[in-house]
Amino acid sequence: MAETSTLTPVAKVLKEDNFYTILEVSKESTADEITRSYRNLVKLCHPDRYQSPSDKQKAEQAFLKLNEASTILKDDTKR
User: Fold this and answer.
1) Taking a C-beta distance cutoff of 8 angstroms, is the pair 46, 71 a contact?
2) How far apart are CA 69 and CA 66, in angstroms?
3) If DSSP states are collapsed to H, E and C, what string results for 54-70?
4) In whole angstroms, what is the distance from residue 51 CA to residue 48 CA?
5) List of long-range contacts for 13-18, beta carbons under 8 Å, 24+ apart
6) Which residues contact 41 (CB under 8 A, 6 or more apart)?
7) Are the beta carbons of 47 and 59 closer than 8 angstroms?
8) How confident is the prediction along the chain (79 residues), in pLDDT tens digits per residue?
9) What does the alpha-carbon distance between residue 55 and residue 38 come to, in Å, rounded to a whole number?
10) Distances in whole angstroms, Cα of residue 75 to Cα of each of 38, 58, 79
11) 37, 24 in Cβ contact below 8 A?
């Protein structure tokens, strides 16, 4: 049961398509706020936190999605 609660951030990231929603920031957020939110979520979704191969795979997908969201939102021209 504890594993299910630790996967909640991973599942949340995987179901979202909006980068602002993924990183839990507003459209007016600064680069520092985006970075702070990204770092907090990466700690929760990092693949090394999970033991089972299926959980690890989901966490890897969430990790990549977080990286993409962070990269795009920190770049003012892509935003």
Assistant:
1) no
2) 5
3) HHHHHHHHHHHHHHHHH
4) 8
5) 13/41, 13/45, 13/62, 13/65, 13/66, 14/58, 14/61, 14/62, 14/65
6) 9, 13, 22, 23, 24, 66
7) yes
8) 444 444 579 999 999 999 999 999 999 999 999 999 999 999 999 999 999 999 999 999 999 999 999 999 999 888 8
9) 20
10) 14, 26, 6
11) yes
CA distance 28 to 12: 22
Pair of tokens at residue 4: 């299910």
